[in-house]
Design a protein that fits this description.
This protein is of the alpha+beta class. The chain has 10 helices and 11 strands. The strands form 5 sheets. It has a 3-stranded antiparallel β-sheet. A two-stranded antiparallel sheet has the order 4-9. A hairpin with a 2-residue loop joins strand 1 and strand 2. The longest helix is centred in the first third of the chain and has 16 residues.
């Protein structure tokens, strides 16, 4: 994308410098090892700055082409993949999930706890793909264990264990979820969850294509997202950032070193709710496509009506 001065797109260079003050402050205070700030307007980059280190242990400064783990920023990409199939007429948003995943037809729903254990009930309505897309399906994540016993059940089977997640295929995930109760009736509440991982499985089933292959052929390649995927190739290892914890009492700590990261292993399965790596420029291209109403650089991925939906 073109890089211009902020004033060319109606922004203020002086005001944008405040971003640098704040960002550098995070580094100076030991809150972050490093970061990148980027601002684009009208399809042009008006601000790009790198701060701190991409790998403190290796003494490597942050670079514009640094490859990051993007975690839940994977989710919008998964939803775009599904909407490609929707536009092609292969699936509807109000289709019951059990149409493609029969195991989801007889799910049970958590009601409460009794003296003898957990009380469950039957589905009042079938879970639809719309429920998955909007996190209203009743699935959980295993994050807020104190919130409901269902979250505890997710944690008990390892759903919040990174090691477990890096080994779990989408098909195995579906089989595990089918044995767990829903936290609420589909459509009755909102709960951040593994729903988009189920969407990824649906994309692979409906398209008869591995999810990572579908993304590469239908999303990344058309948009020119050359550094986005579920693995970091050996030739790009020198651009892969180290992963650090959130700030703790004694500062951040190393969680995942590039040279030994699971992201280097070819056997690491794809996922829909997290698991991608990308660069700031690649994700900018994806975001700009959304902002443009489904098109980027003459390539139309989705219709404007679908993006509005």
């Amino acid at each position: 994308m073109n890089t211009i001065t902020p004033e060319e797109v109606g922004l203020s260079s002086t005001r944008l410098q405040r971003l640098g003050t704040v960002a550098q402050g995070y580094v100076d205070q030991g809150k972050l090892a490093g970061l990148i700030t980027l601002v684009a307007r009208h399809g042009k980059v008006a601000h790009l700055e790198c701060y701190g280190m991409m790998d403190v242990e290796a003494n490597k400064p942050m670079q514009p082409d640094t490859i990051f783990r993007i975690y839940s920023m994977t989710k919008p990409i998964t939803c775009v993949a599904f909407m490609l199939l929707f536009e092609e007429g292969h699936v509807r948003q109000d289709d019951p999930v059990s149409k493609f995943i029969p195991e989801f037809e007889d799910l049970k729903v958590f009601v409460g706890t009794t003296g003898t254990g957990i009380e469950l009930t039957d589905l009042e309505r079938e879970m639809t793909i719309w429920h998955l897309l909007t996190h209203t399906a009743g699935l959980a994540y295993g994050v807020n264990a104190e919130d409901t016993p269902v979250e505890d059940m997710y944690r008990a089977v390892g759903m919040w264990d990174p090691t477990y997640q890096f080994q779990l295929s989408l098909q195995d995930l579906i089989q595990t979820l089918a044995k767990l109760p829903l936290a609420h009736q589909p459509g009755s509440d909102w709960r951040y969850s593994l729903a988009h991982d189920v969407i990824a499985y649906l994309v692979s089933v409906i398209s008869d294509m591995p999810f990572d292959t579908f993304l590469e052929e239908k999303v990344f390649r058309p948009l020119g997202m050359e550094d986005t995927g579920f693995l970091v190739p050996a030739e790009k290892l020198d651009r892969f950032a180290a992963l650090y914890s959130a700030p703790e009492k004694d500062g951040f700590s190393l969680l995942d070193a590039p040279a030994t990261s699971p992201f280097l292993r070819p056997e690491k399965p794809p996922a829909g709710g997290g698991g991608l790596v990308s660069t700031v420029f690649d994700y900018l291209r994806f975001a700009q496509m959304l902002l443009n109403g489904g098109e980027l650089g003459g390539v139309r991925l989705l219709s404007r009506e679908t993006i509005q939906m």
